[in-house]
Amino acid sequence: MDKLRKQQVSLRGASAKEITRDALLEKVAQEREFRNYMRRATAASLFVQRVWRRYVLMKRTALHLQQEWQEMVNCHPVPMSRVWISNNLLRPFLFFVTTLATRGRRFEDRDVDCMRICFKILLESINSSDPQRNFCTLATSSIEERSMWIYQAKKLISLCVVILSECDYSDQEGNQYVALTSMAMRFVVSLTDLKSWKGRNDITLQDADIAVRDLVCYMCSEKIKLYISIRKYLGGLDVPFSSQTRKSGHTDDRFLITASAITLALRPFNNDNVNSQFAAEQYCVLLLTIPWFTQRLPAVLLSAIKHKSILSPCFREILISKERVLKEISKLNYLEQNSSPKTLPPVGWALANTICLAIGADNNSKDSGRFTEGLDFSSFIRVVIILAENLLTYFEEVEWTQINSESLVELAQRQANMSYTDLLKPVCEQWHLMKLLTLVKDPSTQKADEKCELTDVAYYYSCMLRIFTILNPVAGSMHILNMLSFTPGFLLNLWGPLEKAFFPELNSASETTFSNNNHHTIEDLRDVISNKKKKWVNLLNKITGKSQGDYEQIESISNISTKFGNEPSDIWDIESLRKGPEGLTADDSHLIHLFCATYSHLLLVIDDIEFYEKQVPFTLEQQRRIASMLNTLVYNALSYNVSRQNRPLMDAAVRCLHLLYERDCRHQFCPPDLWLSPAKRNRPPIAVAARTHEVMSANIRSDDSLAISSMHSVITTTPHVFPFEERVQMFRELISMDKVSRRMAGEIVGPGPQAVEVVIRRSHIIEDGFQQLNSLGSRLKSSIHVSFVSECGLPEAGLDYGGLSKEFLTDIAKAAFSPNYGLFTQTSTSDRLLIPNSAARLLDNSIQMIEFLGRVVGKALYEGILLDYSFSHVFVHKLLGRYSFIDELSALDPELYKNLMYVKHYDGDVKDLSLDFTVTEELPGKRHVVELKAGGKDVSVTNDNKLQYIYAMADYKLNRQVLPLSNAFCRGLTDLISPSWLRLFNAGEFNQLLSGGNHDIDVDDLRNNTRYTGGYTEGSRAVKLFWEAIREFEPKERCLLMKFVTSCSRAPLLGFKHLQPSFTIHKVACDLPLWASFGGQDVDRLPSASTCYNTLKLPTYKRSSTLRTKLLYAINSNAGFELS
Fold first, then answer.
1. pLDDT tens digits, residue range 1100-1114?
2. Which is the catalytic residue, given 356, 428, 656, 1092?
3. Closest CA to 877 of 866, 889, 860
4. What is the pTM of this model?
């Protein structure tokens, strides 16, 4: 139990509980703070009351003065002296106007009336020639009067600037205010122009000039915000787009106000003693960024704002103070465009207005093909580059590429059809480019500090090209690319410095080193290198006394050390490009970007005659160098990953590289080593490349990640740097990985009891296959077990362990792809390649049937089974997701291609040929007329539109006509084969992957990779007879032998070492009676085969003639197991 607590007694006599010391101090502090707060609150309330009383008093006084002022003005006789105007008119006026109107930025009717009266009196006074009446003569009077005049003039200028900023033509009841603004602008213009002072004399001219300069400096100061008011005023004007409207659409007051505002904006540029640097900065930041700046102004004012005395200081200010100017422009973006991030920023309008101002004539007039007189081209180009770079940076920050077409409405005025890109159209005119190129070629026409370089022009057009592409990804860059690609000599001008930079060792000998005879030139080069090496070694032997054996040892070591360094293919691997875009200078980057974008556009329209025969615009040797440059650049860029800033360059380079590579695949002009050379040093192993490719493809499909590995980028973008054999192995590795993943998922991959059972009648192989397998879709990857029914209706002997399914796939492909079946037809060329029959869409279930055939081809590729047919390159391009161009028409319809080339190069009037934009399609029982464009039957082909007709016809034949059937086939094919796997190959390689290419068998390769079982060896008599017999076979008979043994008539793609299981010859012992042996009788049994195991069961024949006869009978009997 606790002790009793002793009672505490307060010595103060209080019975309350004692407070602690800390609590007491805190309480005192709070009370002190409260008293301070109350004192501040009381002082604040007294201050507010004082301000309010002052405001009320001043307003009451101002109203009283306004009333008295109005009465005084109405009663005062006319004319009025200058002293009376200063003392009696302006002093009270400035007080009550400042108090009642300008502080609140709101003008009431009574204020407007007073200001109109005041400015009317001032204008009459300024226009008076009597010095005693002219208000401006006070600037040259006594010191006191002069000071008062300066003060009042500055106040009046500030008032006029405020009046201008509040002018609004949209207000239907604002006519009085428009008249006031007109009078105020007339007054300021006259006040700041010494030439308009009528009361001055020669004695006081110097004082008057000083006063005017002072006023102009004050007017352009940051305090007055003149350019902000002008920006606000001009931004409220309508945008008349036609020249006629611009000349006649303004009322007198509107024209006068606009002209006065522009006059005030330009006044600092014409005054030598005024700080024009600040004025130029304000002009660039606040006026050049006004949307549709030049379109809002009357035509008569454009010559003033385009004068070199205005443009040169502005360009100079942007170049000198680039960071500050761009920073101020970006502030406008945040102040004015918070509502929509997709609105074009002010720097975009500054770019468009700068280009418009550089054009000498009215932008909409017919005579617009010239620059402004006296334009500093070097400064103009650099300013455009600075503004364009800043605009492109803005686009990247807001991810402008994701904009949709509806958002672009903000870039055009609703009442007109003109868009923002129309302001940039002068850049797309050929005269624009030709003038700049003339300055580059003839620098004598420019000053030393104003020289225009080719790299500047390339950078200029590179930036503009990117802007056009971003604003309209579909067709925005079409006009500028058309102009660039068809300007004579422009591509050669771009390629010249690039060729010097990347091929400095070029001389007359190297021009002929790599011609079309590549193998001979490579051997010649190797001999030259070897001979030079021998000379140096012989000299070394004489000095050191070493023998020829020592030389051979040195030679072997040298061969190893130079295995990757001195091979001729290294000539195509440009050392300066091995770091990708990061190793390029800024000038080279811009040149390459513009060159690639322009040349890739030209490659779309240039035909093979121009490319190979006429060799325009480049010789074939130059084409090889271009391909080498792009191949090395793209490969190394992808190897090191592409930074965001280099993406436009790489997009253009990849596009140009692909066009050159596809043209080389169609008609070779480059040595094979050229395409392989960049990856020769650091090509990854096939298995690693395949696994990386598949993993990254899965990641991209799952989350659309931007983090793509460099190896994956190389494989998907430039698979041609890997040899074809390695890509085939990569393809097989990808399929093996897919089979492993399916096996891990529990699916049936190989033959077994759970395989898909199908029964196929040989007489109805297509119908039975379609009915039983079409519904499987991607499950067709699983193993199928085929049982054949003969034409007699009896089940055929044999168990399917892979052989019968191979036979089924080859047989159904042979039947379905036959032109007689109607789904496919053959091209009219000698190759007789397959392409979908356009008339097949009229057949029942044709789309479903072609989709099923796509799955059949996919199954054959998946299982590594070669088929007997090859497809047209035009059709293969659709399967690979590529577009076909006009020159590929020669492989599809040579006659049509010849006719189109005739039209293209026709010297006369094409209209005489009576062509229109239609094509007649022959269908069973009828003709169908197809319009190549809307209303094409009413559009005649002329010299102006013949190119459009040619490419529209080619596009229809190559792309549109077979598109539905191609899409159906592609859907079936991609059920089993990933599209990314197929893109490892070009069209010719795809056919080789599908059919094996060569229609004969390499007997030596087959013999070197053959196994012998059952007692046979390579030296057995029957085996020797067998090899002698098949060497004498025709190619067709050797193919039949392969089909008899393996169910496929083609050799494995990469040789018989890749045939699984290996080709096997099994001994079938056949004992003969003794009397038969003496009589010379041979074995009567026929050879047989086990296609599941690729095994030929060969009896022990004694004579070559018997073996040949029996073997030919067997392979032509279309039987295998039955012969056992």
1. 888 888 888 889 988
2. 1092
3. 889
4. 0.81
